[in-house]
Amino acid sequence: VGLRISQCRNEEAAAALRRVVVQVGEAVDSGAPDQLPSHEFRTTTAKLLLEVGEADAAADVLTQLILEDEDSPEVRYLAALSLVRAEDTETAVQHVNWYRDQLTKPNCDESLREWEDSFVQVEEELAA
Known about the structure:
The protein is mostly helical. It has helices spanning 2-6, 10-30, 39-51, 55-68, 73-85, 89-104, 116-127. The longest helix is centred in the N-terminal third of the chain and has 21 residues, at 10-30.
């Protein structure tokens, strides 16, 4: 897929990624967690989907990842970004608000602050 993107063959890359999304969906639907690709693989798939303009599919993948681990700032950021691009601003705002809420908690992990610029980018896209 990465090679197709680098060769500007986005249509082919998008088609291959959509097939991956279908396979991941089938694994989710089967209820067999051992059949799911790794969290990292699915996160990378979502990033590639965003890169080829498949925001809706990326949002679907990321929504499933959030169900598995709701505390990942990377997945929340990518979900917010994909939802903005898929024109679901209401849900995108929910992810930004989740991030902002995490920062106000007394036991906030300082590593969350590394995501500030990323979430600001989403806020800027929301405001545009």
